[in-house]
Amino acid sequence: MKTTLDIADALFARAKAHAKRTGQPLRAVVEEGLRRVLDEAPARKPYVYRDLSVGKPGDPNPFDGMTWDDIREEIYGHELEPYLKVK
Description:
By secondary structure, the protein is mainly α. The chain has helices at residues 9-22, 26-40, 68-76, 81-84.
């Protein structure tokens, strides 16, 4: 497969010199480098979110049956109407 990569000039010069020194095509040097990096890469553990649940499992949801306005009122503790009016 053909692709285009941007490689820092100094790194490209080192890779090209290495290829010449070892008698390999530059493509082989790049492929070998990629293989090494990918083979040595440690497996990442999946991130586990902490359980920040509120309430007990099975308890009824206190917000069931409430409108968004009711929920906002419950959260912020005041009517939002005065703040929504354009002056």
